[in-house]
């Protein structure tokens, strides 16, 4: 791997400020062509325990620093990430597949959480409370919860880590992270830069491992861990929540979605198409906020489909490192097969493929950007999270009815509304049972705003003041006479 800064290619686990081998190694491959990129130490449950012990030992000193002292270290980390953004983006594209420009975007986005929480931790104000008894004085202080453990997915190998680790570290917590085995290189490079930035040993630890259940058990059940935070599938999230119950850990869960994208007849169709493409085909559709169901008003349905078809047909498919590529491979063959299964199921149930609908010759993990019409709410494609470059369009005729259909899912992460009518837009934004609703845009996530879901899409928020609050315990202090 050609990097301007070869120090960024780390192949060992990072525990207590040391780089440690595992009993064996994990192959890290380029999803675009199967090429072997690196072999990374395969960490174990015992490594996870050592990491928790290190984080626990490092906690008293880290929490005792002033917010300004922690912020200074975090800002150095932020700056080092920005200085190495090109290399980090290249590593990310090679192991994950997204186009280089998107990877660079993720690095900058990921770093922005570190910068923002470094600033925000200086404002961890408590309160003085008007007393109920003249002989008593009441106040609150906010203190870091303690050791935080994180399990993160492969779709945003950088940002899903910084979104958790930055507020935790800023608050004064120490962290142990288990990144996805598909994308350990981006994760370990972050640790290298954290070390260079001066994060004390044990404050940040990372264990990559194929024994996800074994490592997961330690991270969710060790009594020294105060909080567990997870981004991944709803099924695994539910399992991990159950594991957290035995020691009543605080939890944040960012799970699956089934995002509706509603195009009203008063929408600006060019805006709607651009937003749809952005939410649907970014990262080859592999984001938890990717549009999953596109509802278009019958009066504009055909025109919208023509425009969307033209936009999808223009997409350049290829290796993420090649110039101008807008859609890369999906993460592995299983993912491509899942998408194809949804397409075949929809066709069998009467849907029509307007574009794509098949694997591509570029490599075994490539699936064509696909547009399907004639979809119904009963099809699997409308009920399951697609996580691929597949846009399924349905018609609607009535506002109340489309809102009801959009809400008819156990998920509640993101939803999109396209309308130029401010009263309707407001009405629908408020009626949608989702943690996040974007109106007339397809990209909304930022470090300054709370990201997260309702219903089975999760618990808690990442980003914004809400994201910071997740890592503090509020202590009520009562002073008697
Ligand atoms: P995806 O299907 O997108 O890979 P997962 O929920 O399976 O989503 O994976 C997200 C993260 O959860 C990854 O880091 C993965 O290794 C981890 N994971 C999967 N299963 C378990 C488990 N049983 N215990 C702990 N972690 C797990």
UniProtKB/TrEMBL annotation:
Question: Where does the record locate the signal sequence feature?
Answer: none
**Pfam families according to UniProt:** Aldedh (PF00171)
GO BP annotations of the record are: gamma-aminobutyric acid catabolic process
Which stretches make up the Aldehyde dehydrogenase domain?
19-476
Matching entries from Gene3D superfamilies are given as:
Aldehyde Dehydrogenase, Chain A, domain 1, Aldehyde Dehydrogenase, Chain A, domain 2
Identify the CDD domains for this entry: ALDH_F5_SSADH_GabD
Is Oxidoreductase set as a keyword in this record?
yes
UniProt KW Translocase keyword? no
Query: What GO MF terms are annotated?
Result: succinate-semialdehyde dehydrogenase (NAD+) activity
PROSITE patterns per record: ALDEHYDE_DEHYDR_GLU
**Catalytic center at which residues?**
254
SUPFAM superfamilies per UniProt: ALDH-like
Keywords associated with the record: Oxidoreductase
Q: Indicate the family of this protein.
A: Belongs to the aldehyde dehydrogenase family.
Name listed for the protein in its UniProt record: Succinate-semialdehyde dehydrogenase / glutarate-semialdehyde dehydrogenase
